[in-house]
Amino acid sequence: MQSLLVDNAKTQRCQGVKRFEGRSHAAQEFLTGRRSGLDSFFPASLPLGVFALGSSNSWFVELRVRLIRDDPTKQPVLYELALHGLSASFLDWYLENEYVSETEDAEFWPWVFAPEPLTYQWYAWYSWSEEWELLPGQTNQTLVITNVDSWDHTNWFGVLVTSATGERMFVGPARLWVTPMPIFIPTNGPALRYPATIEVFGMRTNFVWVEVRLDELTHDRAEDLDILVVSPSGHKVILMSDAGGSNRVDKATLVFYPNWIGWPPPPETNAIPSHGESHYRCRNYGEWERQLETQPPYVAPPGPYLEDLDVVRGSNPNGIWRLYIYDDSTNKAGVLEGSWTIKFVY
Ligand SMILES: [Ca+2]
Ligand SMILES: [Ca+2]
What we know:
The protein is an all-beta fold. It has two domains: 4-179, Immunoglobulins (Immunoglobulin-like, Sandwich), CATH 2.60.40.10; 183-345, Jelly Rolls. 3% of the residues lie in helices and 40% in strands. Strands 1, 2, 3, 4, 5, 7, 10, 11, 13 and 14 form a ten-stranded mixed beta sheet that branches. Strands 15, 18, 21, 22, 25 and 26 form a six-stranded mixed beta sheet that branches. The site of one calcium ion has 6 residues, from loops.
């Protein structure tokens, strides 16, 4: 079956472009190729189109459109349009973006019309990486990402499909969009997700500092809150406890840093500023033995707790980070509407 035929004469190149001659290793090079020096809205080596490479050197198809935004104030510019080649087997292919809420499972399923059986190898482009990375063992037709969290947000996925004739097609990329799920805080006791988790992966250990961000915190009495974060290595750090006095806090975004960076602690009796972003070091104004513990299954790890995010420096950041939010006094409740995220600075 001859599915796609584009006249070579239609090939148009506007800027230096890597040329591929249809060898399979060239496909890998494209998938993992690094293009530096382009500060673009779209990742520079993202195959914003599709390409396939035939099993013989003379049969290949490449459809690529590359848009580059080198000035954030401008619209992306079309720098490259390449249409050429011949596909022996792929008639149609498509991978849809996936939209899920935090804690749900995401599923990517490519629509591919080509001679069967088809084999699959999935790739990911993470927001912090600059390469397409092979996902080991992900060779099913469907890619399932369980219990998505903010760490999965803004990642791209694609799958290299091989048809029965040996022709290969990179299907994608498609984006995973994650909607944060509110963390509800009762009048007294553990928050509804206790802990709320983020599974970090793919990060180097030599980060200089870590930031923990709480998005849109609302509470009728800020000092009721005891907030603990636990690292994959077991460091237990109180971000904030008994801060903000008896004041209401409304849609406040709080970013916590290691103490040495020099931000102040959250206020003890004054109000935490509402409707904006505040930068703090950690501070525990409360009595801190056992204050977060409660009856199973809602058990936070016991103290003693530390008050400085710097303690995690040098440890392996990969693994599950846990956030425990506890309301320590009757009456007055709240919600962390935008959930939470972690950032590593190298
Ligand atoms: Ca309360
Ligand atoms: Ca407390």
